[in-house]
Amino acid sequence: QVQLVESGGGLVQAGGSLRLSCAASGTMFSINTMGWHRQAPGKQRELIAFITSGGSTVYVDSVKGRFTISRDNAKKTVYLQMNSLKPEDTAVYYCALYDYAKHKYDYWGQGTQVTVSS
Predict the structure, then answer these.
(1) How far apart are CA 37 and CA 46, in angstroms?
(2) Labelling 43: which of 57, 62, 87, 112 has CA 20 to 30 A away?
(3) Which residues contact 54 (CB under 8 A, 6 or more apart)?
């Protein structure tokens, strides 16, 4: 059974940094695409970055140049380094594992709150 556990959220001032971690178990982590999503209050959850098994990365425009997604296959962990944080980055952040058979992100962590104060 796949389990994803996020950590690293918290309260930070605008302009600050945080690093989120997502530890995976029960999966052949190295072959999976992993994504970071976020859901702000009153908004739909959105995919903001993903990283393929080969290490290719894609970012949504709103975080490009400020956030960096990376992975450590030996530790079965994916990271999201967030710099130059803005109040609009306030959200619950979720990591997710892409299921190629189902063509969707089908395994989710519990989420970690990130709050950016102005």
Answers:
(1) 5
(2) 57
(3) none
* Strand spans (E) along the chain: 3-7, 10-13, 18-25, 34-39, 46-51, 57-59, 67-72, 77-82, 91-99, 104-108, 112-117
10 in Cβ contact with 18 (< 8 Å)? yes
Neighbouring-strand partners of residue 114: 10, 91
Low-confidence ranges of the chain (pLDDT < 50): none
* pLDDT of amino acid 68: 98
Q: How far is CA 78 from the centre of its chain?
A: 8
Place of tokens 């908004």: 43
Q: What's the token pair of residue 9?
A: 């959220």
Amino acid code (one letter) for 43:
K
pLDDT digits (tens, 9 = 90+) for 5-29: 999 999 999 999 999 999 999 877 7
25 φ/ψ angles, rounded to the nearest 5 degrees: -145, 160
